[in-house]
Design brief:
Radius of gyration of chain B: 14 Å
Helix content of chain B: 40-55%
Order of helices and strands of chain A: HHHHH
Shape of chain B: globular
Number of helices of chain A: 5
Distance between the termini of chain A: 37 Å
Largest interface: A-B, 19 and 18 residues
Largest sheet of chain A: none
Largest sheet of chain B: 5 strands, parallel
Order of helices and strands of chain B: EHEHEHEHEHH
Oligomer: heterodimer
Number of helices of chain B: 6
Shape of chain A: elongated
Strand order of the largest sheet of chain B: 2-1-3-4-5
Number of strands of chain A: 0
Helix content of chain A: over 70%
Number of strands of chain B: 5
Chain lengths: 123, 141
């Protein structure tokens, strides 16, 4: 767990996109949809013991999470990316479990966020 | 201002696009090979880009190689350094080697660490005289 980081730093993200709630909803939807594919990619690289592939797969998820201010996921993906860079991926399965747990937390927060904004837009 | 974003991450591209489109045409490319084609086409049509925001770690061709090819094309087209396209590197991989290569070899104007901060980017655009204070004020309306 990384308590010093936000699951989703909404203020930072809204600042980045000029308070565009429509774009917020669109990007959250895309991010939620993409999570299983990122996980599959990372999991498969760990199973194949492919350090460089793991670096690339984790880098992709980290980049997206960083852009979206989904900070804990970004942090967990970065740990996997660094393991890939070092070539020492003995603890990658454990790091991946941490990423899955952070992704679950992000899913909860972002799904609620999606609902709240859609409700506000409808009213 | 005519700008181009080169980034394999769709989220970064769309956020940067949101930041840059208020100032004019903005082309977003997901990889450097097609970005280079777009850059060369624009050069040939005499409608060059004023700004390129480029990631470093990308498959097929990375940001450094892309930038080296852009500079080579400018040199072949006899474009003086003073009129070469402004490039801002945007990357989370801010290692000293990457920063040095981008700034010295690639003649980048600046290196912004991802996630890109809107105010910081706008400050750079203002410094490069690509936008005016009035343009920036309009984005805050």
């Amino acid at each position: 767990m990384t308590p010093e980081l936000a699951v989703f730093d909404r203020a930072a993200f809204m600042e980045r996109i000029g308070d565009d709630e429509e774009l917020l909803i669109e990007l959250i939807g895309d991010f939620l949809q993409q999570i299983p594919a990122w996980h599959d990619d990372i999991r498969s690289k760990i199973e194949k013991d492919d350090a460089d592939g793991l670096r690339r797969a984790a880098h992709a998820m980290k980049g997206a999470a960083l852009s979206m201010a989904i900070d804990r996921v970004a942090h967990a993906a970065k740990a996997l990316e660094e393991a890939g860079v070092s070539g020492e991926i003995g603890n990658a399965a454990e790091l991946f479990r941490a990423l899955e747990s952070e992704s679950d937390a992000a899913r909860d927060v972002l799904s609620k966020e999606e609902g709240v904004v859609e409700k506000e837009t409808d009213s | 201002m005519k700008s181009m974003i080169v980034d394999d991450d769709a989220f970064s591209r769309r956020i940067l696009e949101k930041m840059l489109t208020p100032f004019g045409e903005c082309v977003a490319e997901s990889e450097a090979v097609s970005a280079l084609d777009a850059y060369l086409d624009a050069l040939e049509e005499n409608k060059p880009f004023n700004l390129i925001c480029c990631d470093i770690l990308m498959p097929l061709m990375d940001g450094h190689e892309f930038l080296a090819k852009v500079r080579k094309a400018e040199s072949q087209a006899r474009i003086p350094e003073s009129r070469s396209v402004y490039v801002i590197m945007t990357s989370s991989a801010a290692t000293p080697e990457n920063v040095r290569e981008a700034l010295v070899k690639g003649r980048c104007k600046t290196f912004l660490v991802k996630p890109v901060d809107r105010d910081r980017l706008y400050k750079e655009l203002l410094g490069l005289k690509l936008v005016s204070e009035l343009d920036l004020a309009k984005t805050r309306d």
